[in-house]
Amino acid sequence: MTSSAGDLLRGLAVFPDGMRPFDPGSAPESPHDLFLRWLAAAIDDGVPAPHAVVLSTADGDGCPDARVVVLRDLDEGGFSFATSSDSPKGRQLNATPHAALTFFWQAAGRQIRVSGPVTPASAEENDADFRRRHPAARALVLAGEQSEPILAGESVSAAVERELDGIEGRGSATWTVYRVAPERIEFWQADADRRHTRLRYVRSGEGWRRELLWP
After folding, report:
1. Do residues 118 and 99 make contact, with C-beta atoms less than 8 angstroms apart?
2. How many domains is the chain built from?
């Protein structure tokens, strides 16, 4: 007899064994410093792709839209990722320059939630980031069809090959590095007994206010 989806899901493990402890009382004043600590621990523990992050935006109707992107950089000013300004997420950020980021490191029992306004980087930073990309990745950007339907007779490989011709001397007018300047950052540590620890940083003037949340 075929099991229901609920039966299948209830049989899955949620949290790993041997999770690192987290004492919010010893957390640093800056969420930037805590994120770097957690990121280093995730890398040391072999968490798969800890730089992968869910980027959530709002479309023209105010409906949420989400996808996974790669964190490009992090500093006290915010979290950076990159995409074409004429991609769906680029157009959404242009219309509503606010986003949420969600890191989920299941192997560590941790997630980090970030939200705040988004600003594009300078033309020089955008160009430098574009030129650091793999040639095939640059060619796809220059083809300019991201998220559009592939029509009959069209070939992604052919489009890439066309754009690869002379790729080293070409830049992109649309490639953009976006920075999320956090207003709120929540660090979530799982507990096997469901007494999860949640520490939220909230922007307050030039600094941060810290608060513990109920699981």
Report:
1. yes
2. 1
